[in-house]
Amino acid sequence: MSETIHDLTVKTIAGEDKSLKDYAGNVLLIVNLASYCGYTPQYAGLEKLHQKYKDSGLRVLGFPCNDYGAQEPGTNQEIVQFCTKNYGVTFDLFDKVHAKGSQQHPLYTMLTSQGKPPGDVSWNFEKFLVNKKGEVVGRYRSSVTPESAELTGAIERELHQ
């Protein structure tokens, strides 16, 4: 049996280990985040998705990342403050990760190999949709907004599987 996202453990933004198995049975939208990016206003859309679909089984998982233009230089505490103050973020945030390169986090190794098309994350706010079984079923570039019909349609399809 091939590995799924549920086989991985990540660190929460508070530094605690979190098994992604805890999200089994939920649809996941995994996003690499940055506080100083042209796409940063997508935080608001991600929070709207979270509020709209959380009771139906969507979990938005945000992974801060400083790999692209050094646009996430803050500490975890600064990131939480920024997200809460500016966008009222209540979706799950995690420890800062590398989405590419020699120190790429195992989560992103899996996402970028299983997502279609495969290959490195190209910028901040790239989104991966994961089904209830932990399989990558969608990949959306930074320019695809959280509110887009393309993304919300895919989320709704997975929630109704």
TrEMBL record:
The record's active-site residues are 37
Q: Which residue windows are transmembrane per the record?
A: none
Give GO terms for biological process.
cellular response to oxidative stress
Matching InterPro entries, A to Z?
A: Glutathione_peroxidase, Thioredoxin-like_sf, Thioredoxin_domain
Which keywords describe this protein according to UniProt? Oxidoreductase, Peroxidase
* Species of provenance: Planktothricoides raciborskii GIHE-MW2
- The protein here is known as Glutathione peroxidase
Family the UniProt entry places it in = Belongs to the glutathione peroxidase family.
GO MF annotation: an example = peroxidase activity
Question: This protein's superkingdom?
Answer: Bacteria
Domain Thioredoxin: residue ranges: 1-160
